[in-house]
Specification:
Number of strands: 14
Structural class: alpha/beta
Number of domains: 2
Number of helices: 19
Strand content: 5-15%
Largest sheet: 7 strands, parallel
Distance between the termini: 21 Å
CATH superfamily of the largest domain: 3-Deoxy-D-manno-octulosonic-acid transferase, N-terminal domain
CATH architecture of the largest domain: 3-Layer(aba) Sandwich
CATH topology of the largest domain: Rossmann fold
Shape: globular
Radius of gyration: 23 Å
Helix content: 40-55%
Length: 447
């Protein structure tokens, strides 16, 4: 039955290949990276990659798959601990998104290779594994693909899931597709979960959970230079700074509507007050969209609401006077958190599961989050208990909560201190995971 189920799935992914190629062409119009190295997604590697094939056992790749930006940043924390334990290791780093690949380029050292993860067909995954022959495959957080798992089993490549998480929605989906998901999860060599709750959910879908090692994202150390830069700009600002961090589509509109609803009431015969003179007019707002292709869109949205906008990419000596500062750069979240007195957590005000709040806490930036944090449920609850975050029911409440916090200077300072203590208390997951990987590599190959 399992073989038949995998055959049906493989047939479906093969038939969907033309649709994937068309999707990549469309996405490349806005993000050119999606039009580059397309053959890698189908397991075809040119002459330039033939020479990187390992020739000896001790040259075999340590393969890490980090699908997008968040997973790539987690991989960076893992690599920081793993490389000293495996001197001379060669990294094979794969991604699924352009933002992940751009971020991952900085992690490469001589002898390392960066690729797109192959599309999950039997042929593409088989060619990938045969070409690079990794000593181990490390999937970051959630990425488990049936054909890829099967190809690794056949080739004798141990495949592990690190920093693993599984929310209730994903578990429900895995149970509905148990005929496909259970063999993929059970085919993993080891799973190291973030929390006990994640471990329980993963076991329920067949994953071989070996240990609960914590969330290695707590090991993030914000770049000191970026933080200092942000703090210097914050000290020079004329108003307290509130940040809408890693906002997703639809959330900026909610934010504008919240500002509109907080305008002071008008008297008969008076024109409505502008958004920027409302109840939150004492704040300097900083918006940082999650996806770079939306920078222009967010600027247009703000200007259509009558707000002036100053973009980070145009700053020289510092932020320019404007109603809204727009963070249109990548890799500078520590600067933005250093600049802000409080952050509204993007992805939590629509049903998107929320973004990672750990970096904000590590920067000492208190967080106000909406009701939807299922992607980082455990971290969100821990932050609430530690007083490093506050939960509100909607965006309008978040705007009010942000204003109340930053205008109460002693309360803001106490919240910032709780953030730093919260982040420090949960460190250690990256080293524990690196040690588990080394132990796995030293085991005799059985599959």
């Amino acid at each position: 039955m399992q073989r038949f189920a995998l055959w049906l799935y493989a047939l479906a992914t093969c038939l969907a290949t033309p649709l994937l190629r068309a999707k990549l062409r469309r996405r490349a119009l806005a993000e050119p990276a999606y039009g580059q190295h397309v053959d890698e997604r189908f397991g075809h590697y040119g002459p330039a990659l033939d020479s990187v094939q390992p020739q000896a056992e001790d040259e075999r790749f340590v393969w890490i798959h980090a699908v997008s930006l968040g997973e790539t940043r987690a991989a960076a924390l893992l690599l920081k601990e793993l490389r000293p334990l495996l001197p001379g290791m060669r990294l094979l780093l794969t991604h699924g998104t352009a933002t992940g690949r751009a971020e991952g380029a900085a992690l490469l050292q001589p002898g390392d290779v960066q690729l797109w993860l192959p599309w999950d067909t039997p042929g593409a995954t088989r060619r990938f594994v045969r070409h690079f022959r990794p000593a181990i495959g490390i999937l970051m957080e959630t990425e488990v693909w049936p054909c890829l798992a099967a190809a690794c089993r056949r080739a004798g490549v141990p495949l592990v899931l690190a920093n693993a998480r599984l929310n209730e929605k994903s578990r429900a989906g895995a149970r509905r597709l148990a005929w496909l998901a259970r063999p993929a999860y059970s085919g993993l060599t080891a799973v190291w979960a973030q929390t006990e709750a994640d471990a329980e959910r993963l076991r329920s879908v067949g994953a071989p959970v070996a240990a609960v090692l914590g969330n290695l994202k707590f090991d993030v150390v914000p770049p000191p230079a970026q933080q200092a830069h942000g703090r210097a700009w914050r000290a020079a600002a004329t108003r307290p700074v509130a940040l809408l961090a890693s906002s997703r589509e639809g959330e900026e509109a909610l934010w504008l509507a919240a500002l509109q609803s907080n305008r002071p009431p008008t008297q008969a015969g008076q024109a409505p007050a502008a958004i920027k003179t409302g109840a939150t007019g004492k704040l300097q707002w900083l918006l940082v969209p999650r996806h770079p292709q939306r920078f222009d869109e967010v600027e247009r949205l703000c200007r259509a609401a009558g707000l002036t906008v100053s973009r980070r990419s145009r700053w020289t000596a510092g932020p320019e006077a404007a109603d809204v500062w727009l963070g249109d750069s990548m890799g500078e979240m520590a600067l933005y958190y250093g600049l802000a007195h409080v952050a509204l957590l993007g992805g939590s005000f629509e049903r998107l599961g929320g973004q990672n709040l750990i970096e904000a806490a590590a920067c000492g930036c208190p967080v106000v989050m909406g009701p939807h944090t299922f992607n980082f449920a455990e971290a969100a609850e821990l932050a609430l208990k530690a007083g490093a975050a506050e939960r509100v029911p909607d965006m309008a409440s978040a705007v009010q909560a942000a204003a109340a916090l930053v205008l109460d200077v002693p309360a803001q300072a106490r919240a910032a201190g709780r953030c730093l203590a919260f982040a420090e208390a949960h460190r250690g997951g990256a080293l524990a995971t690196a040690l588990a990987i080394v132990q796995q590599l030293r085991r005799p190959t059985e599959c």
